[in-house]
Amino acid sequence: MTSSAQLNPDVVVRFAPSPNGLLHLGHAYAAMAAHDFARQREGRFLLRIEDIDSGRSRSAFVAAILEDLRWLGLHWDGEVIFQSERLDSYALVADQLKARGLLYPCFCSRAELRQLLVDRPQPESSDGPVYPGTCRHLDPELARKRVATEPHSWRLDIAKAIAITGPLQWMDERHGPQACHPERLGDVILVPKEMPVAYHLAVTLDDARDGISHVVRGDDLFASTHIHRLLQALLELPTPVYFHHPLLCDDKGEKLSKSRDSASLSVLRKGGQNGYGLLQDLRQGIFPVGISLL
Predict the structure, then answer these.
(1) Cα separation of 14 and 202, whole Å?
(2) What DSSP line would sit under 39-67, residue for residue?
(3) What's this model's pTM, rounded to 2 decimal places?
(4) Residue 43: which of 283, 226, 241, 249 has the closest Cα?
(5) CA dihedral defined by 76, 80, 83, 88, rounded to 10 degrees?
(6) How far is the CA of 273 from the CAs of 196, 218, 269, in angstroms?
(7) DSSP letter string over 180-207?
(8) Distance of CA 266 to the CA centre of its chain
C-alpha cells in the first residue's frame, strides 16, 4: 500500500462491487484496472460495497469480497465504505428532486411494462427497453392520491432535466470527449418500489461524497454515464474523468457475470491457485483458456 505521505490528493479511484454473489474473474480484472490506475498515479484506491439491495446482499459475500481482494494482492486505502450506511442522504436528495418536479411516480408493474413494450416496442438502452413515459402523463392530483395507497417507483423526467441543464459533456480517457445524451436511456428509475435508491442516483452521490476524481469501470456501464453526468449537473456535483475499460468474456463472447454463473474467485482461491500470480497474468493480458477481452 502507498503510504499516506506519498498519496496524490488529486487522484481518487474506487472499486464498488455488490455483495449479492461471489466475485468472478471479470471482477478481478475491474478491481485491478481501478487499483492500478490509482497506484500508477500515486493516488488513493477506495473500496465501496454497494449493498443498497438488502434483499440480495449478504454479509458472507462481503467477507468473500475482502478475502478475494487480499488474495489477489489488491489493498485499498482507508475503511471500507458501505452504501447501506448512507440511505438517509439518498432519500434527502430524492426528496429534493421531487420538490423540483423532476421525479414522477410510476405505478407500472413488471407485467404491465412487458405488455406495454409488446404493444408499443421501444428502443433498447443499456438498462433495457426505454420506458414509454406512461405515468409521466397522469393527472397530478390522481397521482398524488395513488402514491398514498399503491406501490410505486420514482422516475426522472429526462426532458425536464435536460431543459434545466442544457447540453453537457464528459471526458473518457479511453474513448475521448463525449456529448451527453441521457434521453437515450429514457426516464430512468431513481427510487425503485422495492429499494431505497437506484444505482444511478446512489453512485452519482457517492462518487461526489468520496471525492472520486476518476471513475474506472467496465464498458458495460459506459451508457449509464449519460445519466450520471445529467445528475451531476442537476445537483451541482463535480464531474470525474471517466475511464471505461474492456470486459472479460467467455468462449461465446458473453461478458462474465454472476447471473451466468461465471466461475468465482472463491473457487479458484480455495482450489489453491495463487492469486497474485493470477493478477500478474491479467496485467499482461494472459487469460485462462476460453477467456478473452470483449
Answers:
(1) 14
(2) HHTT-EEEEEE----TTT--HHHHHHHHH
(3) 0.92
(4) 241
(5) -130
(6) 39, 25, 6
(7) --GGGG-S-EEE-SSSSS-HHHHHHHHH
(8) 23
Cell 482461491 found at = 269
Cell of 165: 441543464
As averages over each run of 10 residues, the pLDDT of the chain (294 residues) reads: 65 97 95 98 97 94 97 97 97 98 94 72 67 92 95 97 98 98 96 95 98 97 97 98 96 80 84 94 92 89
Q: How many CA atoms lie within 13 A of 257 on its CB side?
A: 8
Residue 47 to residue 17: CA distance in whole angstroms:
8
Helix (H) or strand (E) holding 29: helix 25-40
First to last CA, the chain: 30
